[in-house]
């Protein structure tokens, strides 16, 4: 189902078309994801991760940044309603009904986000499958 010309992303959810509380646009979301993943890579480096010195049989070591990324998401989303990248790009995560996201929603959302595919499949409201399944929406602060 696609949005008609008279509608905008988030209208079906009762969100404004722009400004505070509107759906976070793609550029902001990608920027926030980039910041969060770079931060996770830097933090992983403090724990011995070196992407340039990995032996061919590195195994789980390749996943250190992704593991740190997931931990950051699960820690920050329930407590701050935003990851560091979200904060930097003026985004916040909330439930569709506007309530606190709770503890389980960030976990489900993050597990699906690290799979990647659910994050690149969107609906007319620009919500990825990871947000739809968790009942969350990423909006502007």
From TrEMBL:
Localization: Cell membrane
Residues spanning the membrane: 30-49, 61-80, 101-122
Keyword Glycoprotein: no
Keywords: Cell membrane, Membrane, Transmembrane, Transmembrane helix
Keyword Transmembrane attached: yes
Top-level division of the source organism's lineage: Bacteria
Domain RDD: start-end pairs: 25-135
Membrane topology label: Multi-pass membrane protein
Protein name (Swiss-Prot/TrEMBL): RDD family protein
